[in-house]
């Protein structure tokens, strides 16, 4: 009986060693996490999916346009150098071959315009119109159209696009 108990104990120990071998010690590696700052590219105009895209490495205009679904049929493709490399936040505007005619004499007062009236302006989205109204209510009337650059969601490209339709009354 005693021999059977010793033999069982020996088999258990060898089985344990066989099925659960000792792992070699691992070295601790001190690897600091690298924070990646995304490159924000806002593309507007005659593209299939205008909007803001995030990239984590430098990107060419060709790659940006691929993400935006490509040009629309009316796009002026000669305004963009497809090999341009973008390494920091940028706004790109793809012009249209169709000329938009502005009605001279009918300008919208940016300090009095309603949300619905702002949406009638080419290049003005719901988000931009809401941001403009919120900014106007928070900081008061605009004294010059260039102050619109301070409104969230209105960048230089958008400002230049909507300026012909606005005035400061």
Structure, described:
There is one protein chain. The protein is an alpha/beta fold and 169 residues long. The model is unreliable at 101-105 (pLDDT under 50). It starts with a helix and ends with a strand. Among the domains are: 39-94; 108-167, Orthogonal Bundle (DNA polymerase, domain 1), CATH 1.10.150. Strands 2-1-5 form a three-stranded mixed beta sheet, with helices on both faces. A two-stranded antiparallel sheet has the order 3-4. The radius of gyration is 31 Å and the shape is elongated. It has helices at residues 2-19, 61-67, 115-119, 126-139, 156-162; strands spanning 39-45, 51-55, 59-60, 85-86, 90-94, 108-109, 166-167. It has five helices and seven strands, in the order αβββαβββαααβ.
Tell me briefly what this model is.
The protein has 169 residues and is of the alpha/beta class. Helices cover 30% and strands 15% of the residues.
Q: Give the CATH H-level superfamily of the domain at 108-167.
A: Photosystem II 12 kDa extrinsic protein
Percent of residues in helices comes to: 25-40%
CATH topology of the domain at 108-167: DNA polymerase, domain 1
Number of helices, where a helix is a run of at least 4 consecutive DSSP H or I residues: 5
CATH class of the domain at 108-167: Mainly Alpha
If you average the pLDDT, what whole number results? 83
**What's the total count of β strands?**
7
Shape: elongated
Major beta sheet, specifics? Answer: 3 strands, mixed
Identify the notable features of this structure and list them briefly.
single chain; 169 residues; three-stranded mixed beta sheet; 5 helices
